[in-house]
Hints:
Layout: H1 29-32, E1 40-46, H2 49-60, H3 67-77, E2 87-90, H4 95-101, H5 105-117, E3 120-121, E4 126-128, H6 139-146, E5 150-152, E6 162-170, H7 174-185, E7 190-198
Parallel strand pairs: 1-7, 2-3, 2-6, 6-7
Antiparallel strand pairs: 4-5
Helix pairs in contact: 3-5, 6-7
Amino acid sequence: MNWIASPYCAKCGYPFPADLDLGGVPLCPVCASGNCELDWIRSACVYDDASRSAMLPFKHGGRIKYARFMSRAMIWALRDMDVDADIVMPVPLARRRLFHRGYNQATLLARPIARALGIKIDYDSVRRLYRPDMGHKTARERAENIHGVFSVAKPELIRGRRILLVDDVMTTGATFSELRRVLMRAGASAVYGVTFCRVVRAI
Length: 203
Ligand SMILES: [Zn+2]
């Protein structure tokens, strides 16, 4: 695995070359311009052949036992964070997908993380509509595809709360952005994220 270690962006966790010294609080260009998807994001490793070889069987092949090592890596990724979240929330899966897959992979990762942090988990305050798979689309197409899929079913559990979102992978950040938009509109006070791996594009 290509684990993400310092130096990285203080907001989104984007890994920097080892010899790069930005001094102070290092920010990537996206976060420096105020466009981070969430208040902060951490990922354990880079999305590549190695992490994919764990993630795909976990997500689509029923290898749910992988949740143990993946969630441990995610807890490790949070080692430098003073996590002040009130709620741990797995990124919701549409009911139809849950029915076919039998489990939400994000929930399997979120449970041990919530336990390790001593924070309660929230499975059902937010619902997700079914939309056909996004496949390999552009960032703009992914953002359009995800727009409007989330709805807050229990706003009283969201209002004033700081929420740590958990997912297996961050691709373009479109899912996090959309979920944050919906949560903030429902009165959340902060939205953070942690994923097992993330796509690292040149920026
Ligand atoms: Zn950043």
